[in-house]
Design brief:
Layout (H helix, E strand, L loop, with lengths): L1 H32 L47 E6 L7 E5 L3 E5 L7 E2 L9 E6 L7 E5 L14 E4 L7 E2 L10 E4 L7 E5 L11 E5 L7 E4 L5 E8 L7 E10 L4 E3 L5 E5 L7 E2 L10 E8 L7 E7 L58 E5 L7 E4 L11 E3 L7 E3 L5 E3 L7 E2 L9 E6 L7 E5 L2 E5 L7 E3 L7 E6 L6 E6 L4 E5 L14 E4 L6 E4 L2 E9 L3 E6 L5 E3 L15
Antiparallel strand pairs: 1-2, 2-3, 3-4, 5-6, 6-7, 7-8, 9-10, 10-11, 11-12, 13-14, 14-15, 14-16, 16-17, 18-19, 19-20, 20-21, 22-23, 23-24, 24-25, 26-27, 27-28, 28-29, 30-31, 31-32, 32-33, 34-35, 35-36, 36-37
C-alpha cells in the first residue's frame, strides 16, 4: 500500500514539473515574440513602480543591517533655516540649508523637495552658493553661525558639479562655522569663503579664504587672530575685485557669551583680496563692535548697507533686544508654532500681536542699527536703530533693482522703502518668527523667500501675503523618545516649536502625514517622555524649567514645574 502511494506521489510530482516547464516555454516564446508586436499604448496604464532606493546611511554590520532609516516627519513645523540659494536663470530650482537638517533641493518652485546631503558627515549648514555662470556648480559651507548654546558644528566646504547629485569635500575641515560663500560671477573657479571659526575656543583656521582653482587649493587672504573670524562677505556687482567683509570676535562658554571685541569691524578690498583696509571713521560707530551684516546694491553699487551691533552681546546671548526709538519689542505671529515662550497648553496661542518697528526719533549712533554709505564705504550715516538680537540674526538684504528697498531679519521680518530710515514689520501672515535667511528674486522684487526657526515662507507680493512651505520634513528635534504601545508613538521637543508626538506606523497607504502629528507641549520644546506603564500620560519640558503633564485621553494639561518652597515662619511660643 505504501509503495502504491509513493508511486502515485512520484507521478503527480512529475506531472507538475512537466506543466511548469510547458508554461515557462509558453511565456518565453511570448516574450521573444513581443518585440515584433506594436501594442497600442494605453493612456490609463499604471506605471511600473520605481526600484527601491538604497537606504540612507545603511549599516553593513550584520547586527545592524536590518535597521533601516526612514523619515516619519513632521513637516508641519520646520527647523531653523540658515540660507536659501536659487538658480537665478531658473528660480524654480531652490536650495535650502538647515541648521541641523542638511540641504534640500526643489526643482518645481517648492512643490516637492529632496534631501541631497544626508550621506555626508555633517548636517549643520551655514551657507549655500550657486555659480550663476554654471548652475551645476553648488557650494555648501557647513556649520551654522548662529552663536547659540545649542549650535551645531560643520567640517568645512563641499562642492557639487552635478547640481547637488553628489558632493566632494574640498577642505577647511577645522573651520567649524562658515556663514558665507561668494563665487566670482565670471569665473566659477574663483571662490571666497568667510570662516567664522570655533565658537567655544580659539583656532587658526578662520578668516577669509580664496581659491582660484575651484577649491583644489586655498589661501587665507585675511586673518586677524585666533579669536576673530568673518561673519559676512559681499561682492560689488560691477567689479568683482571689490569685496566687503565683516569680522566678528566672539566666544561662548558653558556659562555665558561674549559677542564683540576689537577684532570686529568692516573691511574692504579693491584688488580681489590681495590687500584689505579696515573702514574706520567717516560716520561709522566708534568703540567696541559686535556682529555686523552687510549687503551692497546691485542696481547702484555705490550704495552699501551695514547692520551693526554697537557694543557687545553679554550674558547668555539669548535675550531679545527691544527696538530703539520708542518702538515695542517685535512679536511673532499669533500661531502656536511661532511662540518663543512656553505655552499654557498644547496648541494655545500667544496673545501678543505683531508690531511694526518705526523710528520716530533720530537714530542714535551709539546704539545698534543700520548704517548706509553712498560712496562705496568712504562715508557713512546711521539711518535707523533697527537691529534686534544681533548675535542671532544680523541679516540685511537690498532689492536688486531698487536701492531704497531694504529687508532685515530678526524676531520680526521687516521692510524699509526709504533707504533704511523706517522699517515696517511684515510678520503678519508669516508662520513663525526668528528670521535668518532672506532671498529676493533679482528679476522680480515681488518674489521673496525667507527662512526662520519654523521653516520656509514665500511671498509673491513684496511680503504683503505669505505661503508657508510645509513639505520639508526637517523639524529640529533636541531629543526624542518613544512609548511602549504597538506600534509605538514617537515624542520629542523641537527648537522653538514646542513638543510633539506622532506615530511610527499607520494604516494609511500614503504613509505618515502631517495630520498624524499632535502637540503635547509648548515653548522651546526640549525633552518629552511617555509613562512606560500608561502611554496616555506624556510629559514635556521647555525653557526656564517649565514641566508639564498631558493626559491624551482627556486633553488635560497641567504644570508640574518644581516650585520653591515657601519660607517657614517660626511659631511664636506663648
Amino acid at each position: 500500500m505504501k509503495e502504491k502511494a509513493r508511486a502515485i506521489y512520484t507521478l503527480a510530482s512529475l506531472g507538475a514539473v512537466i506543466c511548469a516547464m510547458a508554461l515557462a516555454t509558453m511565456v518565453s516564446r511570448a516574450e521573444v515574440a513581443a518585440p515584433a508586436q506594436t501594442p497600442t499604448p494605453s493612456p490609463t496604464a499604471t506605471p511600473s513602480p520605481s526600484p527601491t532606493p538604497t537606504p540612507v546611511n545603511w549599516s553593513q554590520d550584520p547586527m545592524l543591517k536590518r535597521f533601516v532609516w526612514r523619515g516619519i516627519g513632521p513637516a508641519s513645523m520646520g527647523g531653523r533655516i540658515d540660507d536659501i540659494a536659487v538658480v537665478e536663470s531658473n528660480p524654480y530650482i531652490i536650495y535650502v540649508g538647515f541648521a541641523t537638517g542638511g540641504v534640500w533641493k526643489s526643482i518645481n518652485n517648492g512643490t516637492t523637495w529632496q534631501p541631497i546631503f544626508d550621506i555626508y558627515s555633517t548636517s549643520s549648514i551655514g551657507d549655500i552658493a550657486v555659480a550663476q555662470s554654471n548652475p551645476d556648480i553648488v557650494w555648501v559651507g557647513t556649520g551654522e553661525a548662529n552663536n547659540r548654546q545649542s549650535s551645531s558644528f560643520g567640517d568645512g566646504v563641499y562642492k557639487s558639479t552635478d547640481g547637488g547629485k553628489t558632493f566632494k569635500h574640498m577642505g577647511l575641515r577645522e573651520s567649524q562655522s562658515i556663514p558665507r560663500i561668494v563665487i566670482d560671477p565670471k569665473d566659477p573657479n574663483t571662490v571666497y569663503v568667510a570662516v567664522l571659526g570655533h565658537l567655544f575656543g580659539p583656532n587658526k583656521e578662520r578668516g577669509i579664504y580664496k581659491s582660484t582653482d575651484g577649491g583644489t587649493t586655498w589661501n587665507n587672504i585675511k586673518f586677524i587672530d585666533e579669536d576673530t573670524g568673518f561673519t559676512d562677505l559681499v561682492m560689488d556687482a560691477s567689479d568683482s575685485k571689490i569685496l566687503y567683509a565683516a569680522s566678528y570676535q566672539r566666544r561662548r562658554t558653558s556659562w555665558g557669551f561674549n559677542g564683540g571685541g576689537p577684532g570686529s569691524g568692516i573691511w574692504k578690498t579693491v584688488d580681489a583680496g590681495k590687500s584689505w583696509k579696515k573702514l574706520d571713521g567717516g560716520g561709522l560707530p566708534s568703540g567696541l563692535l559686535g556682529r555686523i551684516g552687510l549687503d551692497v546694491s546691485r542696481s547702484n553699487p555705490n550704495t552699501l548697507y551695514a547692520q551693526m551691533e554697537v557694543g557687545a552681546t553679554t550674558g547668555t546671548g539669548g535675550e531679545e533686544q527691544p527696538v530703539a526709538g520708542g518702538g515695542a519689542t517685535p512679536s511673532p505671529s499669533p500661531t502656536p508654532s511661532a511662540s518663543p515662550s512656553p505655552s499654557p497648553a498644547p496648541g494655545a496661542s500667544p496673545s501678543a500681536s505683531p508690531a511694526a518697528s518705526p523710528t520716530p526719533t533720530p537714530p542714535d549712533p551709539k546704539k545698534a542699527g543700520v548704517w548706509r554709505s553712498d560712496d562705496k564705504g568712504k562715508t557713512w550715516r546711521v539711518v535707523s536703530n533697527e537691529d534686534n538680537r544681533p548675535m542671532y540674526y544680523s541679516q540685511i538684504r537690498v532689492d536688486a533693482k531698487n536701492p531704497e528697498y531694504v529687508y532685515v531679519g530678526g524676531l520680526n521680518f521687516s521692510k524699509s522703502t526709504d533707504g533704511g530710515k523706517t522699517f515696517k514689520s511684515l510678520q503678519p501672515g508669516i508662520a513663525h518668527s526668528d528670521h535668518h535667511a532672506i532671498w529676493i528674486d533679482p528679476s522680480n522684487g515681488n518674489h521673496i523667500m525667507i527662512g526662520n526657526d519654523g521653516g520656509l515662507d514665500v511671498s509673491y507680493d513684496e511680503g504683503a501675503t505669505w505661503e508657508f512651505v510645509n513639505t520639508i520634513p526637517a523639524a529640529q528635534f533636541y531629543a526624542v523618545a518613544a512609548d511602549m504601545r504597538k506600534p509605538y508613538q514617537v515624542y520629542g521637543g523641537l527648537q522653538d516649536n514646542g513638543s510633539w508626538g506622532g506615530p511610527s506606523q499607520t494604516r494609511n497607504p500614503s504613509g505618515i502625514t502631517n495630520a498624524d502629528w499632535y502637540r503635547v507641549g509648548g515653548g522651546d520644546g526640549f525633552y518629552a517622555a511617555a509613562d512606560p506603564t500608561d502611554f496616555n500620560t506624556v510629559y514635556s519640558e521647555s525653557q526656564n524649567g517649565a514641566m508639564n503633564r498631558l493626559d491624551l485621553r482627556t486633553g488635560r494639561f497641567v504644570s508640574i514645574r518644581l516650585q520653591q518652597p515657601r519660607a517657614l515662619v517660626p511659631r511664636q511660643l506663648f
